[in-house]
């Protein structure tokens, strides 16, 4: 699993039939301190995340293990909206504090 901030959405009017109904998000990957790494990825959204939210995402075969992505050709999925995280007792992020 990785941390990322939702940067935007992807709209694809033509897509593989099994992907119909999925929403796609552009994610900016962040490090443990919440700083952007410069890497981005497109992920299917299994939890209803919004632009600006911090999320957890999985890639590879794990991405097909959510109800939303089961048996679909997905390589990356947002599976949680992050409320907070800390490293060694130091809180690095709390939802709402970054507004």
Can you describe this structure?
The chain has 99 residues and is an all-beta fold. It has one domain (2-94): EutN/Ccml (OB fold (Dihydrolipoamide Acetyltransferase, E2P), Beta Barrel), CATH 2.40.50.220. It has strands at 2-10, 24-30, 36-45, 54-59, 76-81, 84-87, 90-94. The strands form 2 sheets. It has a 5-stranded mixed beta barrel with strand order 1-2-3-5-4. Strands 6-7 form a two-stranded antiparallel ribbon.
The first-level CATH class is given as Mainly Beta
Strand order of the largest sheet: 1-2-3-5-4
Unreliable residue stretches: none
CATH topology: OB fold (Dihydrolipoamide Acetyltransferase, E2P)
Q: What is the typical, i.e. mean, pLDDT? A: 93
Q: Report helical residue fraction.
A: under 10%
- Basic shape: elongated
How many individual domains? 1
Q: CATH superfamily, called what? A: EutN/Ccml
Our measurement of the CA-to-CA distance between the termini, rounded to an integer number of angstroms, reads 24 Å
Kindly estimate the percentage of residues that lie in beta strands according to DSSP. over 45%
By DSSP (H or I, 4+ residues per run), the number of helices equals 0
Radius of gyration from CA coordinates: 14 Å
Q: What is the name of the CATH architecture?
A: Beta Barrel
Structural class: mainly beta
Largest sheet entry: 5 strands, mixed, barrel
Give the total of beta strands.
7
């Amino acid at each position: 699993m990785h941390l990322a901030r939702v940067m935007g959405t992807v709209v694809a009017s033509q897509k593989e039939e099994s992907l119909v109904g999925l929403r796609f998000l552009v994610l900016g990957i962040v490090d443990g301190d919440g700083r952007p790494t410069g890497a981005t990825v497109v992920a299917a959204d299994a939890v209803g995340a919004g632009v600006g939210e911090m999320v957890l995402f999985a890639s590879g075969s794990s991405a097909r293990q959510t109800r939303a992505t089961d048996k679909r050709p997905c390589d990356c999925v947002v599976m949680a909206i992050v409320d907070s995280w800390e490293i060694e007792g130091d809180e690095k992020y709390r939802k709402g504090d970054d507004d």
